[in-house]
Write a structure and sequence with these properties.
By secondary structure, the chain is α/β, with parallel strands linked by helices. The chain has 12 helices and 12 strands. A hairpin with a 2-residue loop joins strand 1 and strand 2 (54-57).
Length: 299
């Protein structure tokens, strides 16, 4: 079995499409089809069922897939060991969200920039569902998630830290200084929200739904913070994202605790053999986030 045929097979299996695999691999579609046929001929089995415009793995294809992934990963490791200088090297595609990119990742990015220049980090801004799907398809190597659930279909994941949330307002807001706020009182205020699909925004909206909340969408955390500071509403945001504003007094924390807990996690496709440079990223993320978390939670 030729390595390039296994690479093509794995890509088609993950994406479920000859056309998409051809695009990802920068091949003509006829080349992808030809390589799959060549692999099937060499093995003497059919690897895909053709169902009109759709394809799916046969039983033989299902059995081959984990071996193909192991062979590809080992080939990458061998190439690095033979051609490299012993330093970690390679590209890591990381799906992540704004709050983590801006407030959790900077120490990690700085570390890799200075200490591991051979590792190139490609950050892909996506929210939870899109990140998980890209991991399953093999488009991303790793994903950083902020979710309530810690188990994800088709993925292995590790919790890095609990991510505290805080309801913030301008110091001049009518609810500032009030104690024991109810969900109804919160819902009755002007609400500033990040984009739908963000876990804490969706959970916050679902919690207040019985009271008919009205959100003004500011899209990003930075825009939301500016709107809140200007007195345009209140917002539920990760404490790490507003710790500086809380310390300076530009924002204040309201006396309402969300009845749900979110966890920042790192995830990858289940069963995937992580190359050395990807394992290094996971290890350093685990270390740096755990070091940062006590400081951020005090806000």
């Amino acid at each position: 079995m030729e390595l390039r045929l296994l690479v093509t097979f794995e890509k088609v299996a993950v994406l479920g499409s000859f056309t998409r695999a051809a695009t990802e691999l920068a091949y003509a579609q006829s080349s992808v089809t030809g390589q799959i046929r060549a692999l099937e001929t060499s093995l003497g089995v059919e690897l895909f069922e053709r169902l009109g415009s759709r394809i799916r793995l046969t039983e033989a294809g299902e059995r081959l897939l984990p071996y193909a992934r192991q062979i590809i990963a080992l080939a990458d490791e061998a190439r690095t060991a033979v051609t490299g200088d012993g330093e970690p090297a390679g590209t890591i595609a990381v799906g992540t969200m704004e709050s983590l990119t801006s407030y959790r990742l900077p120490p990690l990015l700085e570390l890799f920039h200075h200490r591991y220049p051979g590792v190139r980090l490609a950050l892909r801004p996506t929210l939870g569902d899109a990140t998980r799907q890209a991991l399953r398809e093999g488009t991303y190597d790793l994903g950083l998630l902020m979710e309530r659930e810690t188990e994800h279909e088709g993925l292995d994941s590790e919790v890095l830290t609990e991510e505290p949330l805080v309801l913030v307002a301008s110091p001049r807001h009518p609810l500032a200084g009030r104690t024991g706020l109810s969900a109804g009182e919160v819902a009755g205020a002007a609400l500033v929200g990040t984009e739908p699909g963000c876990a804490y925004r969706d959970l916050f909206e679902a919690e207040l739904k019985p009271y008919g909340p009205v959100f003004t969408e500011y899209g990003t955390i930075e825009a939301s913070k500016r709107g809140v500071a200007a007195g345009l509403g209140i917002a539920l945001l990760p404490r790490i994202a507003v710790s500086a504003e809380l310390a300076s007094g530009a924002l204040v924390a309201l006396d309402w605790q969300p009845p749900f807990t979110l966890f920042t996690q790192i995830a990858w496709r289940r069963g995937k053999r992580l190359p050395e440079h990807v394992r290094l990223f996971v290890e350093q993320a685990r270390r740096l986030v755990s070091e940062e978390s006590p400081r951020s939670s005090r806000g």
